[in-house]
Structures are given as structure tokens and as C-alpha cells.
Description:
By secondary structure, the chain is an alpha/beta fold. The chain contains ten helices and 18 strands.
Amino acid sequence: MREAAKEKMGFFPLPEEAIGLIVQMLRVRDVGETTILDPCAGEGSAILSLARELRVPVDNLYAIEVDSDRSRTLSAKLKTGNVLAEASFFGSDVGEDYSIIYCNPPFGTDHEHGRIETSWMIKCAEIQKANGTMVFICPEATFNTPKFFNRFAERYRMVSVVPFPASSRKHGEVVVVAFRKDGIYPGTRMDFTDKRATTIYPVRQSCRPSCFEKKFLNDKEISELVRNSPLNKTLFSSDSFSARLKRPPLPLHTGHMAMLLACGQLDGIVRPSSGDDPHVIRGTAVKVENEKKEEREELSTEQGTVTTQKFVERIEIVVRMACSNGQILTLKGGGDATSN
């Protein structure tokens, strides 16, 4: 990516001089039936400037931004609700009927897919109907790479490639304006017009998209849904399940006590059903590995004698009980009780 792109996630706002360059090439016939999509909207300055100059209502603007900080600024500026905040263009369902798609994507190279701009251009073409207007920002060097050049030629016609004003052309950026073809035509030559921003592009009318939503939740949204879920509130609220746990309706008998001890879960005051004094008991259960000597096997081989020993694991239960007379009894492994 460009220098500082790692810090900015590839976000570089469009300079005002370039806005004027784009606007002079577009002709909007019916502002009420014109929609604009910006799939990499940043803080929203570019799409709002285009809409203001073209007199397109804010209600007809659609914007996507992945960065959380820029998403907050974008949502504050574009208060129509047509914003997918903290969302990926590639993970959103945005329909396919827009008059203009304006895209200023991150500049850079992906080791798996090559130039990042190529992936964004292809994705834009997938959701654009025939004769829709594409306004794409990229370095001129990227436009001239064989993959980008050929993919663009397959999908777009009447292509204008206009350099940014010299004062704003830090990375060799160009504005690429074109009409979407009615399909993909491999092997076709680039249908160039000019490089002087003299071609006028009448903007087609369009309806609002039937769908504009995320297909996937980000980590923050998942955490928020989990935190507000009824199950989470039941289990982890101050009035939690454990705090509301009631005593058993009937007293625990010997079998119940044995199972609790075997699970290592018994730790507290026990009130025996036999009428004995209550006492405090703590039980633990651990696995102990024993050698089973009676299953020792010896096999003679050419290299010598091989001895096989088999081991078994058993659960050892240790119970410590504090009686009412102050005596502490320790019961271990079924043996006799020892007192402390």
C-alpha cells in the first residue's frame, strides 16, 4: 500500500479539485431518480460533495465504511440511515441498481490476488446494471496493469481516463469514468474516449436498491448481541441462576452424597437425614494412575525381551469432614478415617 496506508487502512480522501473534475463530466437529468453508492466512503466527504454539486437528495445516497472511527463520522454526516457502518463492501448485500457508483478504494497489492483496486472494480461491476455510470479512482500505473486494464475493458465502455490536477496528484491518480456494459465480453479492446474530461456522461435513472444490509456481523456486533441476549442475562446478571438456585425439595440420601463426592462437587454444610449433627464436608475427586502388575507381559524377540506393563486409572476420593465436636476426619480411598 501507499506510505501511511497501514495507519489509515488505505483511506485517502478525494481532493476538492478532483470533485470538480468529476462533476463536469456528469449530467443528471432527474435528481429524484438518481442514486449514488460509495462502497469505500471514509468520512463521507466525497459522496456528499458529489451529491451537493449534482443536486442529488441525501436520501438517495448509500455509503459503506469498514473503519469504526470513520463510520461514526460518516453516520453523523449521512443521517438518512443508508449507511453500513463498520461493514465490508465484500460482505454486504447492496442490491444492483445504482445510477452512479463512485469508488475510491485502497491502493496496494494483495499477495494472493494482485492489485487491490482490481478486486474492488470487479465487485463494483457485479452490482451495476447496464449503462450505469462508474467513477473509479486509482493510480494510472494500476489502470495500465494488464489484469486491471483487460478486466475493465471486458465490463465497461466509453472509458475516460483523466489525470488528477497536478497539485493533487501525489500518487499518479486518475479519474476513470465509464458506462457499464450489458455483460462481460472477454478479449474486447478498451473503448477509450479522451483524457481531457470533455466527454459528458448522462446519468441513468434508477430505483432505490431493494436490499442494503450486511451479510456478516463484525466482532463488536457479535459481542453486543451476546451481551444483550436473554440467555446471557439469565446466566450472568446480578440475579444469576446460581444466586436463585433453590434447595432440593427432599433431603439428600447416601447415594446422592456419594455421587456428589465422586464428582468432586460437594463442599459445604451437610444436614444428614439420620438426625446426626450437621457438619462441614469437603470432597475432592482426582485420577490416580496405578501399575497393574498382574498384567505384565514379556515377549522374546530377536533383539531381546520386551516387557509390556499395563496401567489403569482410578478415581480417588478424599473427604474431609468437620464434626460438631471440633474433630476433623479425613476419609481417603475407602480406608479407615484419620482424625486431625
